[in-house]
């Protein structure tokens, strides 16, 4: 019956107090949840300090007595406990729990080393020893592995602060207790009734119905003195309420458990391995009790960690994958950043991820799963589709700071026109707890009312692990079909997307271009070392694969196994791990970035070793010096290029021959400070090699003049520049059209420093108001501008200045005889706090759009702030170049390791360094080497060669000595461990080239599953349609098209023909095409 008075609030609070774990527990229902408790008879402890396996802990553990109330630490240490359980015989037939509560994370193990369940502080404190205790259950021994960190690390004073390394954690609870399942069922009934009463609108009768039912249930229990009979009667009343079902028109929510675990963030990689085990073992426990429970899990790397470190748990995972309860999603190696990785890195995330899931579970993932990444590149839709996916899920766009994203279900169109289906769960989180409030909120916030009839609910503790709990599942059970609420049912991502595809695709809107997150845009710049090392690794792995692929094609069949496939895959996976969305963006603690730096250097060392092996086999690189030695120049790019190279002085014979041949041609000595040697111009064939013999002539030598005001005039065949005494560019004229690139009254290469104090997310965010604080970064000239290198091929100026309060910069400004840009090379010792350093170029260009390189293409963004969507893009991501152009004229900024950009009006900015203090107090402190270039051009940036020159800046020529002189018609013999392989050596040879400059060969690699196939991946970079010819001198038999997972495109079998040494292909704008080339055996 209804309460005797009509006071909604007091009645509601009565219900709340009746099930409160904090108030009146001596007389409320919650206080009867554990009616019987007893202490553990023995509890002993072993401080292992480091993270060690169970077996090792048992072998070396010296367990000594401890007790509740003791503290353990410090942060990042590990402690093991031996727990003996003695269940009283009076508890036979009862449900018995082991209860354990600390402020940190723990794992419960059996005595024979089987991981049972995570025990994660307040989130999960109990383990069901037995649901119906028998004699066999009475005496048991367990082990508990305590990790001295919380779910979110150990930051102090707040979550994202650097870890408190001296923190200790208290053992607050350790006992066994009888669990009253009947009381628990009632508590969950009350909780849901309370939620309905509190959160449904009072304009309907339903919240009143729920409140009065709950109120009467309390009366029944209290009048019955909490007897079993009163529990039964109250339960019947609640069941009757929940049996009142919805109509057919109610919205359907597909509830999917998940446990988003950051591979590293506020804790190191090694702790994530244990977080996966704690979280997944808990999920498996729930699957055994709730057969309808579905749990989605991404990141093949984490599956691999569990497989390698917890084989017994992994077997359970495989069992539940087969049952359809444990659902692999995402298809990538990790949940990577969505903007910073290169295009080929994106593809390898899918390639290695999908191959893992196929090999382990005989299925590929259907849904791309990036719930927490900081924005999404406009090339992702095409990459997804090429990797067999046309469905995408995220929630991160709900974090937009300025504009509310208008869709929850929509088609996302990439720069090539590819469309994929997208869902953003309307309650805007992947860590729902499945409460009534969240169900109501999901419908209130649904952006597509009337267009779709279903949505996803992602529930489970996330980021630091934890996952779903029994309470969440009990709520979902009661919310299955309750009048007044959306229908909630367990399901899978595939079920959800299938419903949308079958019923709602014609009602969905389209979003074209990038999904730009209006937050976390400082992550394009934070931890510059991560970005620098990542790009180095991407380049080196690509080049190494190319050389080994050429070697494979030239080898005889029995030698093709020499291709270092496993080692290359290992190195790729290390780099892909570091591209996780809190590592590469620079938003992790110091320990993580130190570890990531070590991993990057391991990749660099490993790839360099593999490249050395390939070079020795291809070119016969000598072990020592000799008169027969020559230099081989290797161009890894698919077009002919002109460069300056430095020949070391110790190559005496080479230098002597060059000086003889170079009479009358431009040559230049290089100082010892710059490495020493001889600077010479060369022209190298596309994607191939060339012996350094005849020298290339230059059209005009470089010229300079020093002026009385301390400025310098520099000139080459392309440019005329004036560099003022502070190292700024006061004039830059493109010779061919005599147009001035620098805006009147302004200077380029101006270093600007900003105050950089975000609202909360320190390493992540740069706020729009930082733009109001910009000022000249140079505080003092330490060494004035001077000539540091001069000659017909290159002139360099250097100066040294104090920047900011505590930092120093030395910069070299160069102009040479072969490149149409000014090159800036800065060495900065950065010691600032909450400052942001940029370099500014005010240019003589008017355009409403600037163009930025992204993966496999480019993207335009506004230079104005007409709308909130426009001005919110005050800091954006680009890769190797950005261009601002008007008709027939423009300026580009090229770079070697930077990603943060901004173009506002006619001012172009390259973001260089930040200095946040959390979660890493030392972020970006220390030495940085930064390289960028300013390039004015006529015509379009495509016609001017901006794309190619940016590649060349990042992909230098490789220079190797060879001991085999090439003579026309001569054979070159390369020795390996098995046999001598004849490879014809020429003065120059192009392995691959393409007939149109719009096409870039991005990758040449061995096919994953065949030793007689190469994969050549190309893309159209200009944004147009083109018909091209791919040529190769390698022994190719046939060609077929494949997708990015290297599945043959069946429709191409009749259309694509390898004729002679040619393959004709047609590209659409920004299209990526992969070709399988079968080599002769």
Automatic annotation (TrEMBL):
Domain of life: Eukaryota
SUPFAM superfamilies, sorted: Families 57/38 glycoside transferase middle domain, Galactose mutarotase-like, Glycoside hydrolase/deacetylase
Catalysed conversion reaction: Hydrolysis of terminal, non-reducing alpha-D-mannose residues in alpha-D-mannosides
SMART domains: Alpha-mann_mid
The protein's enzyme class: hydrolase
Keyword Hydrolase found: yes
Any single GO BP term: oligosaccharide catabolic process
Pfam families (UniProt xref): Alpha-mann_mid (PF09261), Ams1-like_1st (PF22907), Glyco_hydro38C2 (PF17677), Glyco_hydro_38C (PF07748), Glyco_hydro_38N (PF01074)
Glycoside hydrolase family 38 central domain ranges (all copies): 518-600
Record bears the keyword Plastid: no
Stored PANTHER family: ALPHA-MANNOSIDASE 2C1
Family per record: Belongs to the glycosyl hydrolase 38 family.
Protein name: alpha-mannosidase
């Amino acid at each position: 019956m209804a309460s005797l008075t009509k006071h909604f609030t007091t009645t509601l609070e009565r219900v709340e107090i009746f099930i409160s774990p904090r108030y009146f527990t001596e007389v409320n229902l919650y206080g009867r949840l554990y009616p019987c408790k007893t202490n553990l008879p023995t509890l002993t402890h072993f401080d292992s300090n480091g993270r060690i396996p169970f077996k090792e802990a048992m072998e070396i553990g010296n367990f000594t007595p401890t007790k509740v109330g003791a503290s353990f630490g410090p942060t990042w240490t590990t402690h093991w406990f031996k727990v003996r359980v003695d269940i009283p015989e009076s508890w036979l037939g009862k449900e018995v729990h082991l209860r354990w509560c600390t402020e940190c994370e723990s794992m419960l193990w059996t005595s024979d080393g089987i991981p049972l369940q995570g025990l994660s502080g307040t989130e999960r404190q109990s383990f069901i020893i037995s649901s119906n205790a028998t004699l066999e259950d009475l005496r048991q021994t367990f082990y508990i592995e305590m990790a001295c960190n919380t779910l979110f690390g150990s930051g102090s004073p707040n979550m994202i602060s650097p870890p408190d390394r001296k923190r200790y954690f208290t053992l607050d609870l350790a006992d066994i207790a009888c669990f009253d399942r009947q009381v628990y069922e009632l508590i969950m009934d009350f909780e849901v009734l309370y939620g309905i009463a509190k959160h449904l609108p009072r304009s309907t009768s339903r919240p009143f119905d729920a409140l009065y039912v709950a109120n009467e249930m309390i009366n029944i229990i209290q009048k019955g003195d909490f007897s079993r009979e009163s529990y039964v009667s109250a339960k019947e009343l609640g069941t009757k309420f929940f049996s009142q079902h919805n109509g057919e028109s109610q919205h359907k929510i597909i509830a999917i458990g998940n446990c988003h675990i950051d591979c590293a963030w506020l804790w190191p990689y090694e702790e994530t391995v244990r977080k996966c085990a704690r979280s997944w073992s808990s999920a498996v426990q729930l699957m055994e009790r709730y057969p309808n429970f579905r749990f989605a899990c991404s990141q093949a790397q984490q599956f691999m960690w569990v497989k390698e470190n917890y084989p017994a748990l992994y077997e359970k995972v495989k069992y539940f994958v087969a049952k359809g309860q444990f659902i692999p999603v995402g298809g990538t190696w990790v949940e990577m950043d969505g903007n910073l990785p290169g295009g080929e890195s994106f593809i390898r995330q899918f390639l290695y991820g999908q191959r893992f899931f196929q090999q382990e579970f005989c299925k590929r993932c259907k849904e791309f799963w990036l719930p927490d990444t900081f924005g999404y590149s406009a090339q992702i839709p095409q990459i997804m589709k090429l990797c067999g996916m046309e469905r995408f899920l995220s929630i991160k766009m709900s974090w937009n700071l300025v504009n509310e994203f208008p869709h929850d279900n929509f088609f996302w169109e990439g720069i090539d026109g590819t469309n994929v289906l997208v869902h953003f769960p309307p309650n805007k989180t992947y860590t729902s707890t499945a409460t009534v409030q969240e169900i109501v909120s999901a419908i209130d916030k649904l952006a597509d009312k009337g267009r779709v009839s279903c949505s996803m609910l992602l529930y489970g503790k996330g980021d630091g692990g934890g996952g779903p709990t029994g309470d969440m599942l009990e709520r979902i059970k009661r919310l299955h079909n309750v009048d007044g609420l959306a229908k909630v049912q367990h399901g899978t991502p595939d079920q959800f997307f299938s419903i949308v595809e079958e019923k709602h695709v014609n009602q969905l809107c389209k979003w074209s271009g990038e999904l730009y997150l209006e937050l976390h845009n400082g992550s394009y710049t934070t931890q510059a070392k991560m970005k620098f090392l990542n790009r180095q690794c991407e380049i080196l792995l690509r080049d190494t694969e190319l050389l080994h692929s050429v070697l494979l094609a030239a080898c005889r069949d029995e030698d093709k196994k020499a291709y270092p496939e496993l080692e290359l895959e290992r190195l790729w996976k290390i780099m892909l791990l570091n591209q996780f969305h809190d590592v590469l963006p620079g938003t992790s603690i110091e320990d993580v970035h130190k570890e990531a730096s070590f991993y990057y250097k391991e990749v660099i060392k490993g790839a360099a070793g593999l490249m050395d092996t390939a070079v020795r086999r291809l070119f016969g690189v000598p072990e020592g010096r000799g008169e027969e030695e020559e230099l081989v120049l290797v161009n890894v790019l698919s077009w002919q290029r002109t460069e300056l190279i430095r020949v070391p002085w110790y190559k005496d014979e080479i230098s002597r021959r060059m000086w003889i041949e170079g009479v009358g041609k431009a040559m230049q000595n290089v100082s010892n400070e710059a490495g020493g040697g001889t600077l010479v111009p060369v022209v190298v064939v596309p994607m191939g090699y060339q012996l350094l013999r005849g020298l290339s002539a230059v059209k005009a030598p470089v010229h300079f003049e020093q002026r009385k005001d301390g400025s310098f005039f520099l000139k080459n065949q392309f440019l005329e520049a004036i560099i003022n005494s502070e190292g700024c560019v006061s004039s830059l004229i493109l010779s061919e059209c005599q147009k001035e690139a620098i805006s009147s009254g302004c200077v380029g290469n101006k270093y600007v420093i900003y105050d950089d104090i975000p609202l909360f997310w320190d390493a992540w965010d740069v706020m729009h108001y930082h733009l109001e604080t910009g000022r000249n970064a140079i505080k003092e000239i330490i060494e004035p501008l001077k000539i540091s290198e001069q000659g017909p091929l290159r002139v360099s100026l250097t100066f040294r200045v104090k920047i900011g309060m505590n930092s120093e910069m030395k910069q070299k400004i160069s102009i040479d005889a072969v490149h149409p840009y000014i090159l800036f090379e800065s060495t900065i010792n950065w010691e600032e706090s909450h400052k942001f350093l940029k370099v500014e170029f005010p240019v003589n260009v008017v355009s409403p759009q600037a163009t930025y390189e992204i993966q496999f293409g480019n993207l335009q963004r506004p230079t104005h702030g007409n709308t909130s969507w426009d001005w919110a893009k005050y800091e954006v991501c680009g890769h190797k170049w950005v261009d601002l152009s008007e008709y027939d004229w423009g300026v580009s900024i090229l770079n070697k390791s930077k990603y943060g950009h901004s173009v506002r009006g006619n001012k172009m900015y390259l973001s260089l360094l930040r200095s946040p203090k959390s979660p890493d107090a030392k972020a970006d402190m220390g030495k940085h080497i930064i390289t960028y270039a300013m390039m004015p051009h006529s015509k379009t940036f495509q016609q001017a060669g901006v794309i190619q020159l940016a590649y060349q800046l990042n992909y230098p020529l490789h220079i190797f000595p060879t001991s085999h002189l090439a003579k026309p018609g001569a054979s070159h013999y390369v020795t390996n461990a098995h046999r001598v392989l004849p490879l014809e050596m020429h003065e120059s040879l192009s392995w691959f080239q393409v007939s149109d400059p719009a096409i870039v060969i991005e990758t040449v690699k061995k096919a994953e599953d065949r030793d007689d196939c190469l994969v050549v991946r190309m893309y159209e970079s200009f944004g147009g349609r083109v018909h091209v010819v791919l040529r190769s001198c390698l022994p190719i038999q046939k060609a077929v098209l494949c997708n990015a997972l290297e599945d043959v495109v069946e429709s191409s079998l009749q259309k694509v023909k390898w004729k002679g040494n040619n393959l004709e292909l047609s590209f659409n704008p920004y299209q990526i095409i992969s070709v399988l080339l079968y080599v002769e055996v």
